[in-house]
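Write out the 3D structure for:
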Amino acid sequence: MKSTEISPADYDSHGRLKLPFLFWCVLLLQARTWVLFVIAGASRGQGDALLALFYPDHDDFWLGLLPGLPAAFAFVLSGRRDRFPRLWRTCRSLLMLAQLALMLLQLWRWLNGEALSGVGILLVILDIFALWWLATNRRLHACFSLAHL
C-alpha cells in the first residue's frame, strides 16, 4: 500500500522531494545563536549590547554556537544532498542530537541558578516540539532516505 502523505506537488523540478517548511524553521531554531551573532555583527555599535542582553556570560555564547553547527551543515548540504547521500542521511541524526543538546543545555542552565524566564521556557517548549517533529515526521524521514534523493 502506498503512502498518501506525499503528493506529486511535494517534488521539485528535479524529481527530489522538497524539504518541509518546518525543517527550515527547525534549522533557524537550532542556529539561533548564529542568527544572533550575525544580527549583532550587522548592528555595528549595538552588537555588544545585544549579545550581552541574551548572553551575559560570554562562555555561554561560545557554548551556544556549538549546537548550531549541524544546522549550518544541513543548510549548506541541503542543496547538494544528491551528491553526498551518506552525509545527508547522517544529518537527520545530527540534527536530533543537536536539538537534544540545546534542550539539555537550557535545563542545565536552570539547574545552575539561571532564573526562569518566559523566553527560556518558550525555547525549551520549541526545542521539545522540534525534537518530536524531527523524530516523527514521515515526509522529513523520506527526504533523508536514499529513495527520494
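The mean pLDDT is 88.
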